[in-house]
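Q: How would the C-alpha cells look for this protein?
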Amino acid sequence: MTARVLVVEHEAHCPPALLANWLSDAGAAVDVRRPYAGDELPATPDGDALLVLGGPMDADDDRHAWLEPTRALIRAAADRGVPTLGVCLGHQLCALAFGGVVGRNPLGQQVGLHDIGWTAAAAYDPLLGGLGTGGRGVHWNDDLVLELPEGAVVLAGTPRDELQAVRYAPTVWGVQWHPEVDVEVIRVWAQEDAERHLEHGIDQERVLADIGRAQPELDATWRPLAEGLVRVATRQTPA
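A: Here is the predicted structure in C-alpha cell form.
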C-alpha cells in the first residue's frame, strides 16, 4: 500500500529535504503544499499522513494567514486518526492546536547539534519507539513549547527542561529538532542569522562543519523516522 503524505511547507528555505527523499524511498507519495506561494490547504486531511515543517515565523503570528488553517488541519487529522508529524515550527503549531503555549526559549536560541534526551515513555511510542536511545539532532530555533496541552506525553527533552519531542494526541507527534536538514539547508539559515551569531560569539563555520561531519550519523538516526511515519500511516506492523 502506498502512503500519501501531505506536507505543509512554510517557506522556500525550509523544504522537506531529506525527509521527502526518505518518505519516497519508503514508498510514499509526497504532496508538498506551499501556502505562502498560494497553494490551498485542505480543511481535512486528504492523505494518509500529514507532515508540517519548520519556518522562521512565530507559531501564533497572524500575519501569516495560513497558520490558523494549519492548526485546524492538525486538529482535523487528529480527529480522523491521520498520523501527523510536526517539525520545529510544526511541533509548536501542534502544541497550539491542542491548547499549549509557545514562546521564546528563556535560555536563548538553540543552534547546532544537541543530544536527544529520550524519556522512558518514548520506548513504547508507536512512531518514535523504534529509534532507540541516544542520538543527536540539529536544532535551530528561538521558540519552544513552554506549556503542554492536557494529555500530551513528553518523549524527549534536554537536561535544561527544554522540550524536544511530544505526543500530542494518539496520532500526532512533534519534534523540536530538524531531522530533514543537511548542511546546504542550514547554510541558508546561518546566513540569515550571521549578524546575530557574530554578536553572540557563535562560530557558524564550526557549527556547519560539525553538522557536515555528523551527516552519516544523522541520516542513519532519522531515516527510520520517515519510514516509521509511512508504517503508521499504512498500519503496518513494525519489523
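Residues 4-233 form a domain with the Rossmann fold fold (CATH 3.40.50.880).

The CA atoms of residues 30 and 157 lie 29 Å apart.

Upvote if useful.
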